[in-house]
Amino acid sequence: MSEKLSIKKVVEGLLKLQDSSEDATLVGIGPMSPNLLQATFELAQEYDFPPMYIASRNQVDADEFGAGYVNGWDQTRFAADIKAAAEKAGYTGDYYLCRDHGGPWQRDEERNAHLPEDEAMAKAKKSYLADIEAGFDLLMIDPTKDLYQIGKVIPLDVVLSRTVDLIQYCEDERRARNLPEIGYEVGTEETNGGLTSTEKYQTFIEELKVELGKRGLPMPTFIVGQTGTLTRMTEQVGHYNFQNARELAEMAKSYGVGLKEHNADYLDDVTLLEHIPAHVTASNVAPQYGTEETRAYLKLCKLEQILVDEGLVAKEDQSDLFHTLLVKAIKTERWRKWMVGEDTKLTTDDILANEKLSLDVLDISGHYAFNDPEVKKEIEKLYANLSANEIDGQKFVVEHIKRPIRQYVKCYRLEGVNARIRAAIAE
After folding, report:
1. Confidence of residue 157 (pLDDT cuts 50, 70, 90)
2. 117-126 mean pLDDT
3. Beta-carbon neighbour count of residue 359 at 10 Å?
4. Which of 108, 133, 166, 302 has the most CB atoms at less than 10 Å from its CB?
């Protein structure tokens, strides 16, 4: 295996490829479960592309903050399980551990506790330190979620100041430990389905370049720009703007930086294909893959019911996965961020009393409960019943998750991109 390329080198290679017919757009994958890791690495092995796993602080974080809802992962266990999944799939190429939305008030508990700024920043730094020590390759510096600026656009000078402060901290800690170069991802505001103007984008990049230069800090690897994408429930409700995406990408490239797009779930083939001529360097997809796994389980529950009806599984041995997952997912209340209008104010009892709404909420939030002990117990019972009837349930789930990932791999021209990037860098 060749020496691993830093994420900064990968983006350098991709920016070079934009001048040829070999361009590609990387996909950042929300690590919703161990099954998703397996699905991604099997595809990476098949198509030779570098997976980027983008973990939010709610999903993966230090034990002192309560770890993450995904598999109970802290940064170290997350890194170890990813390494094991790569080895199991026989994947020997590069992959990248990425912090998505790191920063103050980025954990729900911290926001709900109304932490003061100094405490929120201190916790953010501790979380970043755990990322660095666990070997993360990319850290998103996101100080745009401000408890005291809710509903307002945070002043650019505040965003810049916090961004530079956090990059300074991370670089100091990395250098003190003599660790390899890491990349940084920054952004001017929260993704909300609007568009980032090229003027604002350039102002942010230019002022950031000046401030980082004063401190001898590296330029970021990615700068997030809004291209019109917006995910709500299990739909892409945004309006993709090709011209805006292209202009932001060109602006970022002029500074040696890649354009990163968020909320790219559920995009149709035409929009995905637009990413290549728009020169979007990378885009993030997360809830879609969790929903795909939930749907796989529900299909297997329907199959199990048929086996019970046909007398192939005893009624008393039937799993209760559907009901258990439904109730547990709704009770997490993490679905609220994907709702719109008055639905955001509904209680869990309101949801549970409405069958259609319950199913809709399960569709978007089932993955929040995958690590619940009762849910895991019912999944194992389901698998056992299917196995007794010559059906590999876990394999079906993994293959089901692969479907939308493969769509992005094909449209984003990721086949063989590991080799193309190395060739571009070597020129």
Report:
1. confident
2. 94
3. 11
4. 166
Query: E strand or H helix at 206, and its extent?
Result: helix 198-215
Instruction: Identify the CA nearest to 28 among candidates 251, 223, 260.
Output: 260
User: Which string of b and e fits 103-138 if b means at least 16 CB within 10 Å?
Assistant: bbbbbeebbeeebeeeebbebbbebbbbbbbbbbbb
* CA pair distance 120, 102, nearest whole angstrom: 11
- Take residue 187 and report the two structure tokens written for it: 């952004």
Domain with CATH 3.20.20.70 in the chain: 7-285+412-426
Residue 236: what pLDDT? 78
The closest alpha carbon to 286, from 12, 70, 16, belongs to 70
d(CA 394, CA 207): 50
Torsion of CA 70, 34, 90, 41, to 10 degrees: -70
Could you report the per-residue pLDDT of 49-84, keeping only the tens digit for each?
999 999 999 999 999 999 999 999 999 999 999 999
Q: For residue 200, give the nearest of 161, 160, 238 by alpha carbon.
A: 160
Class of domain 7-285+412-426: alpha beta
User: Alpha carbon of 261 to those of 88, 115, 192, 203: distances in Å?
Assistant: 30, 29, 12, 18
- Given a contact cutoff of 8 angstroms between Cβ atoms, the answer to whether 191 and 262 are in contact is yes
pLDDT at 192 over 60: no
First to last CA, the chain: 20
Q: Which helix (H) or strand (E) holds 287?
A: helix 287-309
Question: Do the beta carbons of residue 185 and residue 260 sit within 8 Å?
Answer: yes
Mean pLDDT of 24-35: 95
Q: How confident is the model at residue 234 (pLDDT cuts 50, 70, 90)?
A: confident
> How many angstroms separate the Cα of 171 from the Cα of each of 5, 6, 18, 19, 178?
19, 15, 29, 32, 10
Which two three-digit tokens encode residue 335? 């679905």
Smallest Cα–Cα separation from 110: which of 93, 92, 122?
Answer: 122
